[in-house]
Amino acid sequence: MRTLLISWLLLLGTVCISAAQQEAISYKIYDVKQQREVTLREITAAVPAGTVLVFGEQHDDSIAHALQYQLLQLLQQEWGSKKVLLSMEMFQKDVQYIVDEYLQGLISEKNFIKEARAWGNYADYRPMVEYAKHHGISVLAANTPSRYTNMVTTRGLGSLELLSKEARKNYLPPLPVDTLKGNYYDRFLEAMGGHSIPGFNLYQSQNVWDATMAHSIYNKSGKYRNGIIYHLCGRFHSDYGEGTVFRLRREYDLDVVVISSFYQADVQQTDWADWKQLGDYVIVTRAAETAAAGAGKN
Known about the structure:
By secondary structure, this protein is α/β, with parallel strands linked by helices.
């Protein structure tokens, strides 16, 4: 009886340890083409010079932000600071000079956060900006000034032609912006609740958003043809090779590698059939149910 009890306790202990180990696994990284688990270092080693490496995130995923930071470190170690550009959806083009001033140590962080209109969750991105500052990595404010996307939402795409030549040249992609149809539009409708979009303006502003980021990256691509442009954005802009990624490839003929990162209850469960459409790599992260339920993709 005593022997049986000991055996049962040992088995229970093994089960508990196994369960704890499973719980401790907070993310998995998969190479979709090779259908195997990989590391960030393997991704870094596999990405050739001249590539735009796009990390499509869910904006409230703290695990993904930590991995983004690790990947930036690995890219800098692999290529050197001068051959890596950190491109960010999180900053708009009209604050580029403020970003540069902060990276150069000319202004305080307090002024930088306020005047560069940093996102409310800037703490998630701060380690990357600080790493760039410390190591001399340039940061690209890639996004459209929100006053212009709001203008399109309110007045339509044609309203951008009313802006000054200086504003169009410095802050917008070449006009007119082609409005993408097909699957991207269908996914946008679904994200909006499956209803039609009044006046089509909201979807037009989404396209301006994508086109601006793509054009911002293109403008820097010549300087980094022997290095890497590392772009951070919401995964809606990059999943399925659509949005910004589509424009980078079709309009500017750039080589793009896509990482799609999202929540999943079981990080070890794979879905190769769906994932092969999302991108080149998939990162699945474990997150609290409340966070996953409200996770944004844009």
